[in-house]
Amino acid sequence: MQYLMIKDAIEEQIESGMLKSGHKLPSERVLAESFSTTRITLREALNHLALSGKVYKEERRGWFVSTDTLSFNPVTDTDFAKVCQKQKWHYAVSSISAQRVLAPKEIAETLQLPPFSYVIMQTKLWTIEGRKAAVQYQYAPEKQFSNIAMIDEDANLTEYLKVHYLCESQKNRVKVEVAPATELESSTLNISSGSMLMSITQTAINNQNISYLLQVLRISHDLVTIEIE
Amino acid sequence: MQYLMIKDAIEEQIESGMLKSGHKLPSERVLAESFSTTRITLREALNHLALSGKVYKEERRGWFVSTDTLSFNPVTDTDFAKVCQKQKWHYAVSSISAQRVLAPKEIAETLQLPPFSYVIMQTKLWTIEGRKAAVQYQYAPEKQFSNIAMIDEDANLTEYLKVHYLCESQKNRVKVEVAPATELESSTLNISSGSMLMSITQTAINNQNISYLLQVLRISHDLVTIEIE
DNA sequence: GAGTGGTCTAGACCACTGT
DNA sequence: CAGTGGTCTAGACCACTCC
């Protein structure tokens, strides 16, 4: 199995520090030639490395060495910005969209909304250490929050609900899965369509035991470790 | 993108019920010919389908349609057998090995053991609905459990500790990640080396706040959904 | 022994990125 | 513009599974 030897060779270059976090690997053609093989075999090796989180790919830009992972506890951490801050990572958030929409089926079910309910939906892009890392979706039922439609695109919804409605989560219901990137996600994150993302869904529940906020973080799997204490 | 069309076509056959859970797909060569393409392109399509958990592959045997997922709460569910029972799945456990070993570095750290500690290590294969589904590793520190070395290969370690040492978990520390299959795992589960597994690590903590059992479940990702309430 | 997936070769053209 | 990855073709041989 040639591709396993190539995988190990590249892996060693990374472990030994020859290739550092964020660095770009040589092009597939160059690598293939230097291992005397074809691009297909080489890509097989890189795909395996990517699965173990050592490297990642940006669409049509090339392969890069992954950074360390962010430790994330979805049961307690509702504010992703704080998670980044705690671990002293450089991050930036930007709004992709903020709209009032008819609740999609899955959202309505999770939040236990009646038919034809509207939700405020915010979509955001998280950039971590200069890399487009995650897309986040947040949904808050309009009914529970009058005047919420006026919320600013760039506001932090979690913070906003806490400040303006004194709504803070007592606990979260959490779901973790791997899933292929959607079209929006792949184009936003510059990754190939259908590539693997870690999907973390949190449903915040208030002290009256009512779900009031649903947020989904879809993040490159090599960037995060899920740890629950 | 031909492979996306092929993916969708196969997906539709599954959704529509033409191909049912557990059924084997036609061979790659047959499928490739019926879509007028090459095996490489066809495999690209199948790999994408596999990522979304719709199909899975067994080494040199072919591609199969996945079953529904098992819902698993790693914070509360320490006995995997009960998880299977609750969802009325047919399952079987068999012992791969049971030995007394010097605690590997990572295990010693997690269980906070001094150097040169021995642990009882059980390795098991879980077969679900006829499919080799998961490999489980369990580690219990020998010091805390005198005479434990006499434990039967086929015993349930969780149950054994509860009955013989009144040791029941108050809470669990949990880690969830995706990881490539090791050699042991791929040969045991009949999957190709390095293919993706969901890895769930649980550290059971007793009422004196001491870690007394570490278990790792490595399961095909299309078989499980992680849900924490 | 026939058929399967596992791996590999040696090319090709395209859309896009970066300069 | 040159170079990159994205996608695809048309084969090949091997080790293994299943009958």
UniProtKB/TrEMBL annotation, chains A, B:
One of its GO terms (molecular function) is DNA binding. CDD domains: WHTH_GntR (cd07377). InterPro entries: Bact_HTH_transcr_reg (IPR050679), Chorismate_lyase_/UTRA_dom_sf (IPR028978), Tscrpt_reg_HTH_GntR (IPR000524), UTRA (IPR011663), WH-like_DNA-bd_sf (IPR036388), WH_DNA-bd_sf (IPR036390). PROSITE patterns: HTH_GNTR. Keywords: DNA-binding, Transcription, Transcription regulation. It holds the Pfam family UTRA. It comes from the Bacteria. GO terms for biological process: negative regulation of DNA-templated transcription. Residues 1-68 form the HTH gntR-type domain. The keyword Transcription regulation applies. PANTHER family: MANNOSYL-D-GLYCERATE TRANSPORT/METABOLISM SYSTEM REPRESSOR MNGR-RELATED, TRANSCRIPTIONAL REGULATOR OF 2-AMINOETHYLPHOSPHONATE DEGRADATION OPERONS-RELATED. This is GntR family transcriptional regulator. It comes from Aliivibrio finisterrensis.
